[in-house]
Amino acid sequence: MTHSETLFEQAQKYIPGGVNSPVRAFRGVGGTPIFFNHAEGAYLYDEDGQRYIDYIGSWGPMILGHGDQRIKDALHAQVDLGVGYGAPTALETEMAKKVCELVPSIDLVRMVNSGTEATMSAIRLARGYTGRDKIVKFEGCYHGHVDSLLVKAGSGALTLGVPNSPGIPASLAQLTLTLTYNDIEGVRETFNKIGDEIAAIIVEPVAGNMNCIPPVPGFLEALREVCDEYGTVLIFDEVMTGFRVSLGGAQGLFGVTPDLTALGKVIGGGLPVGAFGGKREIMEHISPLGPVYQAGTLSGNPLAMCAGLTTLNAISEPGFHDRLTEKTHAVCRGLKEAADATGVPLTVQGAGAMFGFFFTEAPTVTRFDQVMACDVERFKKFFQGMLKEGIYLAPSAFEAGFTSAALSEEDIAHTTAAAKRVMATL
Ligand code: PMP
């Protein structure tokens, strides 16, 4: 038995399924999850002493790679000053100012502790602001385990076959209308019928929880248009895309401005942070300025702010995203090259520093039903083969991959060579 197998057995005695978040259990690919005990740069090291090139990056936050010295120094210094006061700090203002500078659609921003809290609060605010109950989301998009949003959800909910979770009252779920991602006509039809009853559209501006699907040209623009026409709040869930697909997030990349934005992952530099913000007029409805209640014991925690702010400052260096995007393209080219060399039909796509690959003949994948038609069995074999080669990919065919600044040319060349060997066995 490997150390990971032993540890997994012990974990399952005390933790549901042995994990604190379902996708980690490897149900999407089979086999035993790998237990890690340290990480450095682009690499993860497991309990059995194996090294892996990391394409998950803690599911997105580790955009600088692991163990960045600037973050370690900031955290060590803050630990000596105190790990939390439950009272305002100058750090929180510095962080908020930085977010508002990087994402110009955000006038006011509130810190929370996870992406889930960010989207949950944004939805509540949109409902409170508009006085409407219905919301629109898209099939296969995941916005955290928020009751109203676990309807036809992606990510682990999809991987584990429970896109509609039990425990969510039907009376609540029926207020969530689920439309097809990238289907502009479908959105217009729904709004023509009941647009003035819809509080918010929430969307991943690049979908990263049903593999990786960029928006087709005009899709985000159409959402902006119908929201303007019907007084609906447009929420971009940039928990994954924020500070990753470009410094200004997907809204910066595509030039479409939402009313509210949910943030997470990179904004915490690996510590538990989320945030939501947007137009002053809407954000002023949040307590204590307005009546929509929202709060948090640990919100704005100084350690979390330190890690996040240091990350945001580091990625603000000129050229950071250009370099990271180029690295991501190189990873994508490598996967495609490996597939072509071995005759495996594969489509690779992405945006900025996130990417996805689909075992399919389709030249592009833009719709949820196309994702579901991909060869998941092939993905599983590929995943397991790559794992043996020391490449740690997301353990599900329905997740995006992430790159970090720590990834080297040699790492990418190694990944391409490994992909060739593994694809030859599929
Ligand atoms: N929104 C999106 C787009 C996400 O990808 C995720 C998590 N993967 C969330 C929200 C939820 O974030 P968290 O897991 O931090 O609650």
UniProtKB/TrEMBL annotation:
It is found in: Cytoplasm. HAMAP family: HemL_aminotrans_3. Its EC number is 5.4.3.8. GO terms for biological process: protoporphyrinogen IX biosynthetic process. It catalyses: (S)-4-amino-5-oxopentanoate = 5-aminolevulinate. CDD domains: OAT_like. This is Glutamate-1-semialdehyde 2,1-aminomutase. Belongs to the class-III pyridoxal-phosphate-dependent aminotransferase family. HemL subfamily.
